[in-house]
Write a structure and sequence with these properties.
Elements: H1 23-30, E1 34-38, E2 43-45, E3 54-59, E4 62-66, E5 69-74, E6 79-80, H2 82-85, E7 95-98, E8 102-107, H3 109-118
Antiparallel strand pairs: 1-8, 2-7, 3-6, 3-8, 4-5, 4-7
Length: 119
């Protein structure tokens, strides 16, 4: 059953990539995820690092820089790294750095791929 309005209290259910997934699949994404706190200026991953996991911003902000050029800043409720997580063997397109004290939910790339391809 697709995620309904009553499931919107799950922050992952509000992510556009996951909006069409059923509630059990969204819960399965979060089950193996780990939460980590990053101090301001702490690098989450670097441009050209091997891909791996996707990250959901619980609180704080993350800046993205590619080839020394500032690209954008993401805030709470936003997902990043999902594109790379969907392509095993690819590398990160930009460096992600905590812009402030930030809490991230790290979702294993394998779970992201399974959820998106299963539904």
């Amino acid at each position: 059953m697709p995620v309904g309005a009553d499931d919107r209290d799950d922050p992952l259910a509000r992510v556009p990539l996951f909006a069409y997934l059923d509630r059990d699949t969204v819960r399965d994404l979060a089950a193996p995820a780990s939460t980590a706190r990053y101090d301001a200026a702490t690098v989450v991953f670097r441009e050209n690092d091997p891909t791996g996991d996707a990250y959901f911003i619980v609180e704080g902000q993350v800046d993205f820089v590619r080839a020394g050029e500032s690209l954008r800043t993401f805030g709470p409720g936003m997902l990043f790294g999902e594109g790379a997580a969907l392509r095993p063997g690819a590398t990160r397109a930009a460096t992600a750095t905590a812009a402030s004290g930030t809490v991230l939910l790290q979702i294993p790339g394998q779970r992201v791929r399974a959820a998106v391809t299963r539904s």
